């Protein structure tokens, strides 16, 4: 499995730690983020990882900025992306099982590296449950594609 990873200038250290952890798990990691601490606008990484997930260049994505918020908002602008910020393993697991998230984000100013690894592991080990959840994912896609939602009319 191939994972795209991206970050901004405040998340370089945590990005390296997560990247190493993913590689230890035997995953291939493609790095779309910055390597140094000079200012690096998070939408660039959010966009690049979002595009890579959406076009199948990578299977899933991990995004890290100060809070995880800005970078996930950027990725979510790409059609087909379901990115969410998770600061705890339970939300990470459920985000995959129920919401079929294809990108996980977290904040380098919010979680430490050990918690971040646990969050990523729960997320990767979880599986989308389908069924009634698929119906809701389809509704989200309808909003994305049409800017409307028939069920809400
Ligand atoms: C950078 O200062 C900070 O705004 C960014 O890392 C992120 O937290 C945005 O959501």
Characterization of this structure:
- This protein has 153 residues and is of the alpha/beta class.
- It has helices at residues 12-24, 42-54, 69-76, 89-97, 113-125, 132-146; strands spanning 2-7, 28-31, 60-65, 83-85, 103-107.
- Helix content is 46%, strand content 16%.
- A five-stranded parallel beta sheet has the order 2-1-3-5-4, sandwiched between helices.
- The longest helix has 15 residues, at 132-146.
- The chain is globular.
- It starts with a strand and ends in a 7-residue tail after the last helix.
- The relative contact order is 0.16.
- The mean pLDDT is 98.
- The structure holds D-ribose.
- D-ribose binds next to helix 3.
- One of its GO terms (molecular function) is ribose-5-phosphate isomerase activity.
- The active site is at residues 65, 98.
- Its EC number is 5.3.1.6.
- It comes from Enorma phocaeensis.
